Each structure stands twice: as C-alpha cells, then as structure tokens.
Fold this protein.
Amino acid sequence: MKTKPTTHEGTSRRDALKGGIGAASLAALGAGAAVPAAIATSAVAVGAGPAQARPSHEGAMASRVTEPATGITMFPDYARTIAQMAYVWGWPIVNMMNRSATITQAPQPSLLDGVLPVSPRGHLAMLADYIDPSETFVTCPNQDVVYGLGFFSLDEEPVVIQVPDFGDRFWVYAMYDARTDQFGKLGKPYGTRPGFYLLVGPNWRGLKPSGITEIVRCPTSLANVIPRAFQDDTPEDKKAIQPVINQINAYPLKDFTGKMKIVEWSKLPSVTGPKSEGGETKWVVPEKYFDQLGAALDLVDPFPGEEALYGQFRLLLDSAAQDPALKKVLVDTAVETEEKVIKQFFQWKHNGRPAGNGWNRSTNNAVFGIDYFNRTGTAKSNMFDNRPTETQYFYTDSDASGTELNGSGSYEITFAKGEEPPVNGFWSLTMYNDKHLFHPNDLKRYSLGTKNKNLKRNADGSLTLYAGAKSPGGDKEANWLPAPNGHFSLYIRAYWGKEGILDGSWKPPVIKKLA
C-alpha cells in the first residue's frame, strides 16, 4: 500500500510543504536522506504560525538548492507575477472543492432544482434518463448517457461502489481526484466484472473486507465519481435501462452488507440549488480564490518537480496574510486573470490540439498531470472529461472557412461512407449555445449519433447532419440539430475509440456553410 516517505525524524514530504520547508529540504526528503532535526523543528514552528527566518545549514545541505527566503517584504509586482500562475494552477482544484461543498449539502440523494443528481458526502445519486436540457451546473453535458454523481472524502470515509451486470450496454464509471485526473478503471473498456468496489484515499490503511471485489485507491482524499451508462433514444431502451441503473449505487463502507442496494432513481425528490444567471454556475469566485488556495495546497500532494511552485505559493499566502495591501493585490490579480486568461479557454481553439478541418481534439484529458494548460482549459470549458482511452472529444466554434458558427446560417456536416467516428462504444455530435449548454428547441433535440435509429443516409451511404436555426425541411429534418440565432459550437464524442481515434489519424468532417 502507498505510504508517505518519511525521514527518521518523522517529517513527511507533505508536512514539509505545509511547514514551508523549501527546495533544499524537499530535495533531501525526495532522496530519502536524513533531515537535520533543526529543519524538522523549524517545519513545525513555521506551520503553526507566521513564516520565520530559518537557521542556515552546513555540510551536505550547503551543496543543495537554496530554499525560498522568509521574512521578506514582497512588493506588489512580484506578488502579482506569482499570483497569476497560482490562479491558473489551482483553479481546477478550487472548482472541485466548491462543487463538493455545494453538492454534498443535499440531505439525501436528490435532484438539484429537479435536474442534477446530488447526495450527501459518501453517497451518489443517479438520473433515470438523459440530463434535462435546462442543466447549468456543468458545461458540455451530453444526452447519450444516463449520468450519476457523487463526492467523497475517502481518507475519512471509504466508499463502496456497486457495479451491476450491464450486459452488452456501454458503461464507464469516471472517478476523479481533486486535480480532476481520473483514477481507477471501472467500465466496459476494461472488462470490469459486476461486484462491489471499495474506493479508498491515499492514507487509508486496512485489509480488503470480505465480499469486496477490488480496492481502488485515489491519490487524494477528495474524489468524485460520474457513472455513465449509454442509452438509445427509444422508449424501449429508456425502459430497459431502469433495472440496471437502479443497481448503481455508492455508500460508506460501514453500510456495506454484501448485497446490492436497489434505488428507484426515477423517484428522487427535488431540492433547491444556487440561482443560475444563464451560464454555468460560478464555481470559482475570484475575490475568494486566495482564501481557498491554502486548502487546495493541503489537499493535493505535489507531483515531482512541483515543490518549487508550492513553496512560492505558500510564501505568497504568508506574505499577503501579514499585509492587507498585498492581499488586495492578490484579489485584483485573481479578478484580472479570470477575465484575461480563464475566460479565453471558452474558445475551443484554446483547448487541446488541432485535429483537422477546423476542429480541435482533447489532449491529456483526465490524465493531465502537470499539463496545466489543458487541465485548467478543460475545467473551464468542459469539466469532467473521460480519459483518452475511454473518450476522445472534438470541438469547434467555426466552419471550414474559419468563420464563426452562427444560427443565422445553415450548415452541412457530412461523414463519408465508413468515415463516421470509429468506435467500440458510441459516437455523437452535440450542439451547444455560446455558454456551452443546450439550446432549448421544440424538437427537444440536442445531439445526434449512435443513439438515434431514424437518421437518413445518402444514396452513396454517407451521412449528412444539418445545423442551423432554420430546419432543412422534409426528410432532412431527422438529421437536423436546431441552433440558437447567435453563436453556437459543435462537439463530437467518440466513446471507446478504435485505432483511428486513438492515434489521431481519423479526421472530423468538414463543416460546410450553405449559400
């Protein structure tokens, strides 16, 4: 089992970071070297109060990298420089923290505003059909799967998650740590067998309880799970999926009995949620961000090489705590960075890599590591992607000429015969408005793809889909995605992609604007 590296003084790498030990001491910890008692003592003292000057160290320490100096007077322009990076780095983590804090307020598994599945910490709730188009709690939802959602604090409370027999149906449980990276592998692509899986945190100690199929460890104590079960857009499949999804469940280990707990998710009560202003719920508030960054640093251990960032960010917070004027600089920087940097990620050209024909494709999705650009971009534009082997995403704001998509125009998207996304699971094309949410329409149609059994093919076997505010009429209407009058974007999902999806050789279709 995973254990914290410790010195003979009992100082862990995490304790060192919390206490403010700098790069030199961290290098020694990472190498497993003994750390002088003076440093271990200093870590406790610094962690308990304001930053203080530390004694100099000779001998072996003299050849190591100097740690950040404490007791300095940090001037505004320097603080602003570090603060901007701190904002971009921690934005997804603070986002996760705030989602968890809100969603776990539910007194029991419920539907937030009758739309989003929510539950107390350590539990999950499921939808019983596609997500309602009025949903504004997360951007880029899909209407190909039945979703679930739960947030956990796994060091405090290990959680049992049930996996029923899905038969031939595509399914995957995407489990995310506090950084929004996925952990564990539960789903059809992995050949997961039905059973009971125990989710535990990085510091959980124990033996596998009787009746538990497998233990899945999360690298952070905060985690969430989003089950996805594919559903055809037919009355028959909407009925057939119910006994399956009613067996999807999660609950604290103390409640485990070895028997499947069944819930009729279609009968969940509704609870009132935060008011929406038309776009996604504002999960990161710039004015409060730096009040939460310290908790974010405590929540996730640094990846190799991140120790220097942690040291700078903690020094920044220590300095601001002692200087109200400097704290105001941090708040102003957060507001400015939100506007000038974070908002830019809402443009698909700033997400992932070019994929051809004016589209971009997701990159490192849900396995971001230290790819801060794509991690923060995804957290802003379409949080909770699946990892690349589970799903690849293609998205665009423009047609083939580079002109912004607009509902006042009419567009054709043609897949040549045999050139639909090559998948083992399913694929879809989804229409989003300028806020990356569904556009309400009389047809109640938001995506087209594998789930649709009435798509009309061309005589040569190709498939043309249509997008625009105006119906193409006749038989073509079955292939039409209604658009808002203003800007919209298009988004392809390829679940459980084959080689062409995985290696990037498959290209998304040209989006042709009609005269």
